[in-house]
Structure formats: structure tokens, C-alpha cells
Specification:
- By secondary structure, this protein is an all-alpha fold.
- It has helices at residues 2-57, 59-68, 72-79, 86-99, 108-137.
- Helix 2 (59-68) packs antiparallel against helix 5, helix 3 (72-79) crosses helix 5 (108-137) and helix 4 (86-99) packs antiparallel against helix 5.
- The radius of gyration is 30 Å and the shape is elongated.
- It is a peripheral membrane protein.
Length: 141
């Protein structure tokens, strides 16, 4: 009988160990699931805030950001301009384009970012000019 008791105790220990292991796995999955759900909620909230900000900036401006792949703020940062001045944009563009020329050891990637930033800012200037023209056409009441 003693060997049967030993086998019974070992079997119980294995069942208890398996039970605890299963509980640990379930708890781990729950923790990871909660963290994932929280991250998703934060991501959705961030996307909603960005969409609201784009909505305030105007539909055409948001469309231009989507087409160029750069937001207005990114383009301004790349070309280091604070206000939309065609002269300042062109001056900074020319300087950064020359500095990043591959023949002088620059980066083609950075040079292409400079080009895209200038295109995005020029598009924004065009949108603003169009909006100004539309406001002038509106009858004043």
C-alpha cells in the first residue's frame, strides 16, 4: 500500500501544479488583454483628436496632408518656417536642397523630404488664396 499512496500523492501534486499553472496562464492572458484594450482606446482617442484637428483646419488642408503624406506642421518644421511666406519658404527650400545634395555628401532621403515639404506648403498657400477669393465673393450682409 505505501507505493500506491506515493503514486496518489504525486498525482495530486501534478493536478495541483497543473491547476496553478493554468491559473497563472489565465491571469497573464487577462493582464495582456487589458493592456491591449487600454492601448487601443488610447490610439482611438488620439486618432479622434487628430481628425478633429484636421477638421478644424479645413477639408482641403486635410486632403492635402493626406495626399502629400506630410501635415502642415511637419512641412513647416522641415523647412523651418513659422509663417506661410512664399519668400521664406523658397529661401529655406533652396538652402536645404543644396545642403542635402548627394554630390556634396548630403542625403537623398532628406532632400526628398525638403521637396515634399515645399510642395505641401505651396499647396497650403494655394488653398488659403482660394479661400480668400471665395470670402471676397461672398455678399456682405
Amino acid at each position: 500500500m505505501p507505493w500506491q499512496l506515493v503514486v496518489l500523492v504525486q498525482g495530486l501534486q501534478a493536478q495541483v501544479s497543473a491547476k496553478y499553472l493554468a491559473q497563472i496562464i489565465v491571469m497573464g492572458v487577462q493582464v495582456v488583454g487589458r493592456a491591449f484594450a487600454r492601448a487601443l482606446r488610447q490610439e482611438f482617442a488620439g486618432n479622434r483628436a487628430a481628425a478633429d484637428a484636421r477638421g478644424r483646419a479645413g477639408h482641403q488642408s486635410a486632403a492635402a496632408s493626406n495626399l502629400s503624406g506630410l501635415s502642415l506642421q511637419e512641412a513647416q518644421q522641415i523647412l523651418n518656417v513659422s509663417k506661410l511666406s512664399p519668400e521664406e519658404i523658397q529661401k529655406n527650400y533652396e538652402h536645404l536642397f543644396k545642403v542635402n545634395d548627394k554630390s556634396v555628401g548630403g542625403s537623398f532621403y532628406l532632400q526628398s523630404k525638403v521637396v515634399r515639404a515645399r510642395e505641401r506648403l505651396q499647396e497650403e498657400l494655394r488653398i488659403q488664396a482660394q479661400e480668400d477669393r471665395e470670402k471676397e465673393r461672398m455678399p456682405k450682409t
